[in-house]
Amino acid sequence: MPAQKKPPIVLIPGFMCDATLWKLIRPELATLGQVHLADLNHGDTVEAMAARTIANLPDSCILIGFSLGGYVARRIAVLAAHKINKLVLLNTSARATTVVEIQRHQQQIKMLKEYPYKGQTMTALKRALHPDNNDDAALLTLMQNMSLNLGREVFIRQLGLIREDGHADLRQIFCPTLVVASRQDQMRDLNEAENIVAALPHATFCILEQCGHMSPLEKPHELAAVLRNFILS
User: Fold this and answer.
1) Is the pTM of this model over 0.85?
2) Distance between CA 191 and CA 197 in Å, rounded?
3) CA–CA gap between residue 46 and residue 171 (Å, rounded)
4) pLDDT tens readout for residues 47-101
5) Sheet arrangement for strand 84-90
6) Torsion, CA 140, CA 96, CA 69, CA 230, rounded to 10
7) 87 has which bridge partners?
8) Concatenated DSSP letters for the chain?
9) Quick check: 4 pLDDT over 80?
10) φ and ψ at residue 206, rounded to 5 degrees
11) Which of 92, 39, 15, 29 is nearest to 61 (CA)?
12) Taking the domains of the chain in order of start, what are their residue ranges?
């Protein structure tokens, strides 16, 4: 009997993240299938980002979306369901952007048009980490470098995105879906992940302990093991 063909694996990063986000788990994923890297560097809406990604999406893929990438992955799973074998949503949500968030983002965009771009603030970077990692200089530098490499225009574009409520989308996703949350995620409440799981027809739920928002960088070995189990199941 011929060996089962390994599925392509498509990785969609989060807000101001590039391929570096996946560097610690990519070697493990590469043993499970050919890894494809998507980006969110273009498009002013989640819908536009999803459409751009679909244009290059391989058939029967494992689609993995982190944070903002999870919003995009959800839309892809609805718009191109025939291309998705399994779906993974990491540290993400299905809730809409609030009025307060929109106002705060618009204020940041206004300031960015008046002052030089220096990447994300240290306060924002630390909030994305488990408190124990707040003084991890290597991790903070890696995250800041992603922000600087992507640059001012991508930052403004992603900051200006208005995310619509996606719970209705979830009820239309029938492929096996893994939802991963982190216990100490300061960017996403645990109940946001629980709401996603409750709305999905075929969901598996995993909570990473002692981990902040940046699970692919903070808990790469644990996350890779969870992904391996799901992909091979």
Assistant:
1) yes
2) 10
3) 18
4) 999 999 999 999 999 999 999 999 999 999 999 999 999 999 999 999 999 999 9
5) 35-37, 9-12, 61-66, 84-90, 177-182, 203-208
6) 100
7) 63, 177
8) -PPPPPPPEEEE--TT--GGGGTTTHHHHHTTS-EEE---SS-SSHHHHHHHHHTTPPTTEEEEEETHHHHHHHHHHHHTGGGEEEEEEES---PPPPHHHHHHHHHHHHHHTTS----S-HHHHHHTS-GGGTT-HHHHHHHHHHHHHHHHHHHHHHHT--PPP-HHHHTT--S-EEEEEETT-SSS-HHHHHHHHHH-SSEEEEEESS--S-HHHHSHHHHHHHHHHHHH-
9) no
10) -135, 135
11) 29
12) 9-96+164-232, 99-159
Question: Among positive and negative, which fits the CA dihedral 18, 22, 23, 24?
Answer: positive
Q: How confident is the model over 52-62, as pLDDT tens digits?
A: 999 999 999 99
Which amino acid belongs to residue 51? A
Residues comprising the chain, all counted: 233
Rounded to whole angstroms, the Cα distance separating 166 from 179 reads 15
Place of tokens 């799901």: 230
Q: What is the CATH number of domain 9-96+164-232?
A: 3.40.50.1820
Measured in Å, how far apart are the chain's first and last C-alpha atoms? 19
CB–CB of 83/96 below 8 Å?
no
